[in-house]
Amino acid sequence: MGGRLNLRHLANHYRTENNSGLYPQQPVESLQPSRPSPSIPAAPTQPPRQSVQHQQPSDSKTSHTPSSSLQRQPTTEPVLIGGMILDINVTPTTLDPLVIEPMEESDNTIPGNITYATGGQARNVADCMSKLTAKPFLISVVGHDMAGNFLFDNWKSTGLSDQGILRDQNIASAAICNILDGQGELTAAVASVEPIEKYLTPDWIENFKSKISSAPILMVDANLSVLSLEASCQMAAESDTPVWFMPVSVTKSRKIAPVVHNVSFVSATEDELIAMANAISGGETYAAARRVSSRPVESFFEMLKPAIWLLLDKGVKVIVITIGPDGVFLCSKSKSDLEQRLDIKGNQPSFSKELYEAVDRTCPTGRVSGSSRYTLFSSDFYAVHIPALSVLAVSVDGAAECLVGGTIAALCAGLDVMQSVAAGTATAKFSLEIESNVPREFSLDKVAVGAGYLYSRMSTSIGPLTNQTQDHAARPTQNKRNNLLLYQSNK
What we know:
disordered C terminus; pseudouridylate synthase activity
Protein backbone atom coordinates (compact mmCIF):
# COMPACT_ATOMS: atom_id res chain seq x y z
CA MET A 1 0.00 0.00 0.00
CA GLY A 2 1.35 3.38 -0.89
CA GLY A 3 0.90 6.64 0.93
CA ARG A 4 -2.16 8.87 0.76
CA LEU A 5 -2.48 11.02 -2.35
CA ASN A 6 -3.34 14.54 -1.23
CA LEU A 7 -4.80 16.69 -4.04
CA ARG A 8 -5.10 19.87 -1.99
CA HIS A 9 -1.96 21.56 -3.37
CA LEU A 10 -2.77 20.44 -6.91
CA ALA A 11 -6.24 21.88 -6.52
CA ASN A 12 -4.86 25.25 -5.46
CA HIS A 13 -2.55 25.30 -8.47
CA TYR A 14 -5.28 24.58 -11.00
CA ARG A 15 -7.78 26.83 -9.28
CA THR A 16 -5.47 29.75 -10.02
CA GLU A 17 -4.78 28.82 -13.62
CA ASN A 18 -8.21 27.65 -14.83
CA ASN A 19 -10.51 29.08 -13.24
CA SER A 20 -28.74 52.15 -31.00
CA GLY A 21 -30.73 53.52 -34.14
CA LEU A 22 -33.97 52.99 -32.24
CA TYR A 23 -32.80 54.64 -29.04
CA PRO A 24 -31.08 57.84 -27.96
CA GLN A 25 -27.43 57.56 -28.97
CA GLN A 26 -24.44 59.27 -27.43
CA PRO A 27 -21.41 58.30 -29.53
CA VAL A 28 -18.29 58.47 -27.44
CA GLU A 29 -14.78 58.85 -28.68
CA SER A 30 -13.56 58.78 -25.08
CA LEU A 31 -14.40 55.08 -24.82
CA GLN A 32 -12.01 54.28 -27.64
CA PRO A 33 -8.36 53.50 -26.92
CA SER A 34 -6.41 56.74 -26.98
CA ARG A 35 -2.83 55.56 -27.25
CA PRO A 36 -0.91 54.72 -30.44
CA SER A 37 -0.90 51.07 -31.40
CA PRO A 38 2.04 48.95 -32.57
CA SER A 39 1.95 47.14 -35.88
CA ILE A 40 0.54 43.64 -35.98
CA PRO A 41 3.26 40.99 -35.64
CA ALA A 42 3.52 38.41 -38.37
CA ALA A 43 1.16 35.48 -37.94
CA PRO A 44 2.91 32.31 -36.79
CA THR A 45 3.15 29.42 -39.20
CA GLN A 46 1.20 26.29 -38.39
CA PRO A 47 3.00 23.11 -37.25
CA PRO A 48 3.74 20.94 -40.31
CA ARG A 49 2.17 17.82 -38.81
CA GLN A 50 -1.13 19.47 -37.95
CA SER A 51 -1.73 22.14 -40.52
CA VAL A 52 -5.13 23.79 -40.64
CA GLN A 53 -6.06 25.43 -43.93
CA HIS A 54 -7.79 28.68 -43.06
CA GLN A 55 -8.43 30.13 -46.48
CA GLN A 56 -8.98 27.10 -48.71
CA PRO A 57 -10.22 23.97 -46.91
CA SER A 58 -8.32 20.93 -48.11
CA ASP A 59 -11.01 18.35 -47.31
CA SER A 60 -14.65 17.96 -46.48
CA LYS A 61 -14.03 17.89 -42.76
CA THR A 62 -12.78 21.45 -42.67
CA SER A 63 -15.62 23.93 -42.60
CA HIS A 64 -16.73 27.48 -41.95
CA THR A 65 -14.20 29.41 -43.98
CA PRO A 66 -15.76 32.83 -44.64
CA SER A 67 -16.53 33.78 -48.20
CA SER A 68 -15.40 37.05 -49.73
CA SER A 69 -19.03 38.12 -50.05
CA LEU A 70 -19.46 37.67 -46.31
CA GLN A 71 -16.42 39.84 -45.65
CA ARG A 72 -17.83 42.59 -47.85
CA GLN A 73 -21.04 42.76 -45.82
CA PRO A 74 -20.41 44.97 -42.78
CA THR A 75 -22.50 44.20 -39.73
CA THR A 76 -23.09 45.89 -36.42
CA GLU A 77 -23.03 42.75 -34.30
CA PRO A 78 -20.80 42.64 -31.22
CA VAL A 79 -17.85 40.33 -31.89
CA LEU A 80 -16.39 37.91 -29.34
CA ILE A 81 -13.11 36.03 -29.80
CA GLY A 82 -11.98 33.23 -27.51
CA GLY A 83 -12.49 29.74 -26.23
CA MET A 84 -15.10 27.04 -26.67
CA ILE A 85 -14.27 24.43 -24.01
CA LEU A 86 -15.94 21.21 -22.89
CA ASP A 87 -16.36 21.17 -19.10
CA ILE A 88 -16.32 17.65 -17.64
CA ASN A 89 -17.46 17.89 -14.03
CA VAL A 90 -16.80 14.95 -11.71
CA THR A 91 -18.35 14.78 -8.23
CA PRO A 92 -17.47 11.73 -6.08
CA THR A 93 -20.34 10.78 -3.77
CA THR A 94 -18.68 8.48 -1.23
CA LEU A 95 -15.53 10.26 -0.07
CA ASP A 96 -13.81 13.59 0.31
CA PRO A 97 -12.21 14.19 -3.11
CA LEU A 98 -9.46 16.28 -1.49
CA VAL A 99 -7.83 13.10 -0.17
CA ILE A 100 -8.03 9.97 -2.31
CA GLU A 101 -6.80 6.72 -0.78
CA PRO A 102 -5.00 4.12 -2.91
CA MET A 103 -7.53 1.51 -4.01
CA GLU A 104 -7.32 -2.26 -4.15
CA GLU A 105 -7.27 -3.83 -7.61
CA SER A 106 -10.79 -5.14 -7.04
CA ASP A 107 -12.06 -1.67 -6.11
CA ASN A 108 -10.70 0.60 -8.83
CA THR A 109 -13.66 2.95 -9.29
CA ILE A 110 -15.34 5.56 -7.11
CA PRO A 111 -19.11 6.16 -7.25
CA GLY A 112 -20.05 9.63 -8.34
CA ASN A 113 -21.69 11.87 -10.91
CA ILE A 114 -20.16 12.96 -14.21
CA THR A 115 -21.73 15.77 -16.21
CA TYR A 116 -20.77 17.63 -19.37
CA ALA A 117 -21.26 21.34 -19.93
CA THR A 118 -20.44 23.84 -22.64
CA GLY A 119 -17.74 26.20 -21.46
CA GLY A 120 -15.17 28.77 -22.49
CA GLN A 121 -15.51 32.41 -21.54
CA ALA A 122 -16.15 33.82 -25.01
CA ARG A 123 -18.68 31.06 -25.75
CA ASN A 124 -20.49 31.56 -22.46
CA VAL A 125 -20.61 35.34 -22.83
CA ALA A 126 -22.06 34.97 -26.33
CA ASP A 127 -24.60 32.41 -25.08
CA CYS A 128 -25.69 34.75 -22.29
CA MET A 129 -26.02 37.68 -24.68
CA SER A 130 -28.15 35.66 -27.08
CA LYS A 131 -30.61 34.87 -24.28
CA LEU A 132 -30.92 38.60 -23.69
CA THR A 133 -31.92 38.83 -27.38
CA ALA A 134 -28.57 40.17 -28.62
CA LYS A 135 -26.94 38.58 -31.69
CA PRO A 136 -23.20 38.27 -31.01
CA PHE A 137 -20.74 36.92 -33.57
CA LEU A 138 -18.33 34.35 -32.10
CA ILE A 139 -14.86 33.61 -33.47
CA SER A 140 -13.48 30.38 -32.02
CA VAL A 141 -12.16 26.91 -32.85
CA VAL A 142 -13.22 23.29 -32.21
CA GLY A 143 -12.37 19.93 -33.72
CA HIS A 144 -14.42 17.08 -35.16
CA ASP A 145 -13.93 14.95 -32.05
CA MET A 146 -16.53 14.12 -29.39
CA ALA A 147 -15.92 17.34 -27.47
CA GLY A 148 -16.00 19.42 -30.64
CA ASN A 149 -19.24 17.85 -31.85
CA PHE A 150 -20.87 18.44 -28.47
CA LEU A 151 -19.78 22.09 -28.41
CA PHE A 152 -20.61 22.78 -32.05
CA ASP A 153 -24.03 21.10 -32.00
CA ASN A 154 -24.94 23.04 -28.87
CA TRP A 155 -23.86 26.27 -30.53
CA LYS A 156 -25.91 25.50 -33.63
CA SER A 157 -28.97 25.09 -31.40
CA THR A 158 -28.69 28.74 -30.33
CA GLY A 159 -29.50 29.89 -33.85
CA LEU A 160 -26.44 32.15 -33.91
CA SER A 161 -23.97 32.27 -36.79
CA ASP A 162 -21.29 29.58 -36.83
CA GLN A 163 -19.28 31.20 -39.64
CA GLY A 164 -16.58 32.32 -37.21
CA ILE A 165 -15.97 28.86 -35.74
CA LEU A 166 -13.03 27.05 -37.32
CA ARG A 167 -13.37 23.25 -37.50
CA ASP A 168 -10.75 20.80 -38.70
CA GLN A 169 -10.05 17.08 -38.27
CA ASN A 170 -6.54 17.86 -36.99
CA ILE A 171 -7.80 19.91 -34.05
CA ALA A 172 -8.29 18.33 -30.64
CA SER A 173 -11.00 20.39 -28.97
CA ALA A 174 -10.26 22.15 -25.69
CA ALA A 175 -11.55 20.44 -22.55
CA ILE A 176 -11.25 20.74 -18.78
CA CYS A 177 -11.95 17.96 -16.26
CA ASN A 178 -13.00 19.39 -12.90
CA ILE A 179 -13.14 17.39 -9.66
CA LEU A 180 -15.70 18.94 -7.33
CA ASP A 181 -16.69 18.32 -3.75
CA GLY A 182 -20.25 17.92 -2.52
CA GLN A 183 -20.70 21.69 -2.25
CA GLY A 184 -19.70 22.34 -5.85
CA GLU A 185 -16.25 23.65 -4.91
CA LEU A 186 -13.34 22.90 -7.22
CA THR A 187 -10.74 20.63 -5.59
CA ALA A 188 -8.63 19.71 -8.63
CA ALA A 189 -8.67 20.08 -12.40
CA VAL A 190 -6.85 18.93 -15.51
CA ALA A 191 -7.01 21.29 -18.48
CA SER A 192 -6.21 20.91 -22.16
CA VAL A 193 -6.82 24.32 -23.74
CA GLU A 194 -3.71 24.65 -25.90
CA PRO A 195 -5.69 24.14 -29.14
CA ILE A 196 -7.22 27.58 -28.66
CA GLU A 197 -3.82 29.27 -28.61
CA LYS A 198 -2.51 27.04 -31.39
CA TYR A 199 -5.30 27.27 -33.95
CA LEU A 200 -7.20 30.48 -33.19
CA THR A 201 -4.55 32.43 -35.07
CA PRO A 202 -4.28 35.98 -36.42
CA ASP A 203 -4.79 34.54 -39.92
CA TRP A 204 -8.19 33.09 -39.01
CA ILE A 205 -9.25 36.21 -37.13
CA GLU A 206 -8.18 38.39 -40.08
CA ASN A 207 -10.96 36.79 -42.15
CA PHE A 208 -13.48 38.67 -40.01
CA LYS A 209 -11.79 42.05 -39.95
CA SER A 210 -14.83 43.74 -41.52
CA LYS A 211 -17.05 42.42 -38.72
CA ILE A 212 -14.62 43.72 -36.10
CA SER A 213 -14.43 47.06 -37.89
CA SER A 214 -18.19 47.54 -37.91
CA ALA A 215 -18.85 46.07 -34.45
CA PRO A 216 -20.00 48.32 -31.60
CA ILE A 217 -17.61 46.39 -29.31
CA LEU A 218 -15.09 43.53 -29.44
CA MET A 219 -14.61 41.13 -26.51
CA VAL A 220 -11.47 38.99 -26.27
CA ASP A 221 -10.64 36.40 -23.64
CA ALA A 222 -7.13 35.54 -22.47
CA ASN A 223 -7.29 31.98 -23.79
CA LEU A 224 -5.98 33.54 -27.01
CA SER A 225 -2.27 33.61 -27.73
CA VAL A 226 -0.50 36.93 -27.27
CA LEU A 227 -0.10 37.20 -31.06
CA SER A 228 -3.83 36.73 -31.61
CA LEU A 229 -4.67 39.21 -28.86
CA GLU A 230 -2.38 41.78 -30.45
CA ALA A 231 -3.81 41.22 -33.92
CA SER A 232 -7.42 41.39 -32.70
CA CYS A 233 -6.87 44.56 -30.70
CA GLN A 234 -5.00 46.19 -33.58
CA MET A 235 -7.88 45.49 -35.99
CA ALA A 236 -10.28 47.03 -33.49
CA ALA A 237 -8.07 50.08 -32.96
CA GLU A 238 -7.93 50.77 -36.69
CA SER A 239 -11.71 51.25 -36.74
CA ASP A 240 -12.16 52.74 -33.23
CA THR A 241 -13.96 49.63 -31.98
CA PRO A 242 -13.68 49.48 -28.18
CA VAL A 243 -12.21 46.27 -26.75
CA TRP A 244 -13.35 44.39 -23.63
CA PHE A 245 -10.63 42.17 -22.10
CA MET A 246 -11.58 39.12 -19.99
CA PRO A 247 -8.55 37.76 -18.09
CA VAL A 248 -9.83 34.13 -17.63
CA SER A 249 -7.44 33.45 -14.72
CA VAL A 250 -4.76 35.09 -12.59
CA THR A 251 -1.97 33.63 -14.72
CA LYS A 252 -3.54 34.39 -18.10
CA SER A 253 -4.55 37.90 -17.04
CA ARG A 254 -0.91 38.91 -17.53
CA LYS A 255 -1.43 38.71 -21.29
CA ILE A 256 -2.97 42.18 -21.13
CA ALA A 257 0.46 43.83 -20.91
CA PRO A 258 1.21 44.12 -24.67
CA VAL A 259 -2.36 45.17 -25.59
CA VAL A 260 -3.42 47.40 -22.69
CA HIS A 261 -3.10 50.56 -24.82
CA ASN A 262 -5.87 49.19 -27.09
CA VAL A 263 -8.22 48.01 -24.32
CA SER A 264 -11.22 50.12 -23.26
CA PHE A 265 -12.98 47.77 -20.80
CA VAL A 266 -11.55 45.30 -18.28
CA SER A 267 -13.44 42.98 -15.93
CA ALA A 268 -11.43 41.21 -13.23
CA THR A 269 -11.31 39.88 -9.70
CA GLU A 270 -9.03 41.71 -7.28
CA ASP A 271 -6.36 39.00 -7.72
CA GLU A 272 -6.51 39.30 -11.52
CA LEU A 273 -6.33 43.10 -11.21
CA ILE A 274 -3.13 42.89 -9.17
CA ALA A 275 -1.61 40.36 -11.61
CA MET A 276 -2.41 42.64 -14.57
CA ALA A 277 -0.88 45.65 -12.84
CA ASN A 278 2.30 43.73 -12.08
CA ALA A 279 2.52 42.46 -15.67
CA ILE A 280 2.09 45.97 -17.06
CA SER A 281 4.64 47.46 -14.65
CA GLY A 282 7.14 44.70 -15.35
CA GLY A 283 7.64 43.71 -11.72
CA GLU A 284 5.90 42.72 -8.51
CA THR A 285 5.18 46.27 -7.40
CA TYR A 286 1.55 45.72 -6.48
CA ALA A 287 0.78 43.58 -3.44
CA ALA A 288 -2.26 41.37 -3.08
CA ALA A 289 -5.06 42.97 -1.07
CA ARG A 290 -6.84 41.27 1.81
CA ARG A 291 -10.43 42.21 2.54
CA VAL A 292 -10.94 42.70 6.29
CA SER A 293 -14.61 42.05 7.01
CA SER A 294 -14.64 44.31 10.07
CA ARG A 295 -13.55 47.30 8.00
CA PRO A 296 -15.69 49.25 5.53
CA VAL A 297 -15.52 48.32 1.87
CA GLU A 298 -13.88 51.71 1.21
CA SER A 299 -10.73 50.52 2.95
CA PHE A 300 -10.47 47.57 0.56
CA PHE A 301 -10.92 49.96 -2.33
CA GLU A 302 -7.97 51.99 -1.02
CA MET A 303 -5.76 48.90 -1.24
CA LEU A 304 -6.73 48.38 -4.89
CA LYS A 305 -6.41 52.03 -5.93
CA PRO A 306 -2.76 51.94 -7.09
CA ALA A 307 -3.41 49.00 -9.44
CA ILE A 308 -6.65 50.55 -10.71
CA TRP A 309 -4.90 53.82 -11.44
CA LEU A 310 -2.12 52.11 -13.39
CA LEU A 311 -4.58 50.47 -15.80
CA LEU A 312 -6.50 53.72 -16.24
CA ASP A 313 -3.27 55.62 -16.80
CA LYS A 314 -2.31 53.15 -19.54
CA GLY A 315 -5.51 53.90 -21.46
CA VAL A 316 -8.22 51.60 -20.07
CA LYS A 317 -11.46 53.58 -19.87
CA VAL A 318 -13.66 51.43 -17.62
CA ILE A 319 -12.70 48.77 -15.05
CA VAL A 320 -15.18 46.38 -13.43
CA ILE A 321 -13.68 44.78 -10.30
CA THR A 322 -15.63 41.93 -8.73
CA ILE A 323 -15.20 41.63 -4.95
CA GLY A 324 -17.18 38.56 -3.97
CA PRO A 325 -20.01 39.13 -1.48
CA ASP A 326 -19.32 42.87 -1.49
CA GLY A 327 -20.34 43.23 -5.14
CA VAL A 328 -18.52 45.27 -7.76
CA PHE A 329 -16.32 48.36 -8.04
CA LEU A 330 -16.85 50.29 -11.28
CA CYS A 331 -13.97 52.67 -12.03
CA SER A 332 -12.96 55.24 -14.64
CA LYS A 333 -10.95 58.45 -14.87
CA SER A 334 -14.09 60.54 -14.99
CA LYS A 335 -17.78 60.15 -14.24
CA SER A 336 -18.57 61.09 -17.83
CA ASP A 337 -16.99 57.82 -19.01
CA LEU A 338 -19.52 55.91 -16.90
CA GLU A 339 -22.40 57.85 -18.45
CA GLN A 340 -21.37 57.19 -22.06
CA ARG A 341 -23.02 54.90 -24.61
CA LEU A 342 -21.43 52.85 -27.35
CA ASP A 343 -21.11 54.35 -30.80
CA ILE A 344 -23.30 52.08 -32.95
CA LYS A 345 -21.70 52.07 -36.39
CA GLY A 346 -23.07 51.14 -39.79
CA ASN A 347 -26.45 49.53 -40.30
CA GLN A 348 -29.16 49.00 -37.73
CA PRO A 349 -27.65 46.90 -34.91
CA SER A 350 -29.24 43.68 -33.70
CA PHE A 351 -29.80 44.80 -30.14
CA SER A 352 -32.92 44.35 -28.07
CA LYS A 353 -35.52 47.09 -27.85
CA GLU A 354 -37.14 45.13 -25.01
CA LEU A 355 -33.92 45.02 -22.99
CA TYR A 356 -33.32 48.73 -23.49
CA GLU A 357 -36.83 49.73 -22.47
CA ALA A 358 -36.96 47.37 -19.47
CA VAL A 359 -33.64 48.49 -17.97
CA ASP A 360 -34.02 52.16 -18.84
CA ARG A 361 -37.36 52.17 -17.04
CA THR A 362 -35.87 50.84 -13.78
CA CYS A 363 -32.50 52.62 -14.11
CA PRO A 364 -33.28 56.21 -15.15
CA THR A 365 -30.15 58.13 -16.06
CA GLY A 366 -28.97 60.53 -13.38
CA ARG A 367 -30.41 58.80 -10.33
CA VAL A 368 -27.00 57.72 -9.01
CA SER A 369 -25.64 61.24 -8.56
CA GLY A 370 -27.62 61.76 -5.35
CA SER A 371 -26.33 58.69 -3.49
CA SER A 372 -23.76 59.24 -0.73
CA ARG A 373 -23.60 56.03 1.26
CA TYR A 374 -20.00 55.33 0.29
CA THR A 375 -17.11 57.69 -0.32
CA LEU A 376 -15.07 56.14 -3.13
CA PHE A 377 -13.90 59.23 -4.95
CA SER A 378 -10.19 59.94 -5.23
CA SER A 379 -8.39 62.81 -6.85
CA ASP A 380 -7.17 60.45 -9.55
CA PHE A 381 -10.31 58.73 -10.79
CA TYR A 382 -13.98 58.11 -10.24
CA ALA A 383 -15.49 54.95 -8.72
CA VAL A 384 -18.90 53.50 -7.97
CA HIS A 385 -19.69 50.64 -5.61
CA ILE A 386 -22.45 48.27 -6.71
CA PRO A 387 -23.58 45.88 -3.95
CA ALA A 388 -24.25 42.19 -4.53
CA LEU A 389 -27.75 40.79 -4.77
CA SER A 390 -28.60 38.20 -2.13
CA VAL A 391 -28.62 34.71 -3.61
CA LEU A 392 -28.40 31.14 -2.40
CA ALA A 393 -25.55 30.05 -4.66
CA VAL A 394 -25.72 26.60 -6.23
CA SER A 395 -22.65 26.97 -8.46
CA VAL A 396 -20.28 29.83 -9.22
CA ASP A 397 -19.59 28.55 -12.75
CA GLY A 398 -20.46 31.10 -15.40
CA ALA A 399 -21.06 34.05 -13.08
CA ALA A 400 -18.19 36.06 -14.59
CA GLU A 401 -19.41 35.39 -18.12
CA CYS A 402 -23.00 36.31 -17.30
CA LEU A 403 -21.94 39.60 -15.73
CA VAL A 404 -19.95 40.50 -18.83
CA GLY A 405 -22.59 39.12 -21.20
CA GLY A 406 -25.36 41.06 -19.51
CA THR A 407 -23.28 44.23 -19.50
CA ILE A 408 -22.28 44.01 -23.17
CA ALA A 409 -25.83 43.14 -24.24
CA ALA A 410 -27.09 46.22 -22.41
CA LEU A 411 -24.37 48.42 -23.92
CA CYS A 412 -25.27 47.19 -27.40
CA ALA A 413 -28.93 47.91 -26.67
CA GLY A 414 -28.06 51.59 -26.22
CA LEU A 415 -27.80 51.87 -22.42
CA ASP A 416 -24.98 53.78 -20.72
CA VAL A 417 -22.11 52.16 -18.82
CA MET A 418 -23.60 52.43 -15.31
CA GLN A 419 -27.00 51.15 -16.43
CA SER A 420 -25.31 48.31 -18.30
CA VAL A 421 -23.11 47.16 -15.41
CA ALA A 422 -26.18 47.17 -13.15
CA ALA A 423 -27.93 44.95 -15.71
CA GLY A 424 -24.89 42.69 -15.97
CA THR A 425 -24.63 42.34 -12.20
CA ALA A 426 -28.30 41.38 -12.02
CA THR A 427 -27.81 38.88 -14.87
CA ALA A 428 -24.94 37.19 -13.01
CA LYS A 429 -27.20 36.55 -10.03
CA PHE A 430 -29.30 34.11 -12.05
CA SER A 431 -26.21 32.14 -13.05
CA LEU A 432 -25.38 31.50 -9.40
CA GLU A 433 -28.75 29.82 -8.82
CA ILE A 434 -28.18 26.96 -11.29
CA GLU A 435 -25.72 24.14 -11.98
CA SER A 436 -24.95 25.07 -15.59
CA ASN A 437 -22.77 27.96 -16.73
CA VAL A 438 -25.57 29.95 -18.36
CA PRO A 439 -29.31 29.75 -17.58
CA ARG A 440 -31.57 28.29 -20.27
CA GLU A 441 -33.39 31.62 -20.43
CA PHE A 442 -33.60 34.99 -18.74
CA SER A 443 -36.64 36.99 -17.77
CA LEU A 444 -35.96 40.53 -18.99
CA ASP A 445 -38.38 41.83 -16.38
CA LYS A 446 -36.48 40.11 -13.56
CA VAL A 447 -33.14 41.32 -14.90
CA ALA A 448 -34.53 44.85 -15.09
CA VAL A 449 -35.94 44.70 -11.55
CA GLY A 450 -32.60 43.46 -10.20
CA ALA A 451 -30.74 46.12 -12.16
CA GLY A 452 -33.05 48.81 -10.83
CA TYR A 453 -32.50 47.66 -7.25
CA LEU A 454 -28.72 47.77 -7.69
CA TYR A 455 -28.77 51.02 -9.64
CA SER A 456 -30.66 52.80 -6.88
CA ARG A 457 -28.09 51.55 -4.36
CA MET A 458 -24.95 52.43 -6.28
CA SER A 459 -22.77 54.39 -3.91
CA THR A 460 -20.84 57.43 -5.05
CA SER A 461 -19.65 60.55 -3.32
CA ILE A 462 -17.06 63.19 -4.15
CA GLY A 463 -14.88 63.89 -1.16
CA PRO A 464 -11.93 62.68 0.91
CA LEU A 465 -11.92 59.01 1.81
CA THR A 466 -12.05 58.24 5.53
CA ASN A 467 -10.92 55.06 7.31
CA GLN A 468 -7.96 54.64 5.00
CA THR A 469 -5.63 51.72 5.61
CA GLN A 470 -2.28 50.55 4.37
CA ASP A 471 -2.97 46.90 5.12
CA HIS A 472 -1.62 45.13 2.03
CA ALA A 473 -1.37 41.62 3.45
CA ALA A 474 -1.73 38.78 1.00
CA ARG A 475 -5.31 37.76 0.27
CA PRO A 476 -5.95 34.03 0.69
CA THR A 477 -6.67 32.12 -2.48
CA GLN A 478 -10.42 31.91 -3.01
CA ASN A 479 -11.80 28.39 -3.14
CA LYS A 480 -14.05 29.31 -6.04
CA ARG A 481 -13.91 28.20 -9.61
CA ASN A 482 -13.79 31.05 -12.16
CA ASN A 483 -12.72 33.41 -9.35
CA LEU A 484 -16.12 34.09 -7.82
CA LEU A 485 -17.89 37.13 -9.11
CA LEU A 486 -21.02 37.59 -7.06
CA TYR A 487 -21.66 35.34 -4.10
CA GLN A 488 -23.79 36.05 -1.10
CA SER A 489 -25.68 33.62 1.10
CA ASN A 490 -29.42 33.99 1.33
CA LYS A 491 -30.24 35.93 4.51
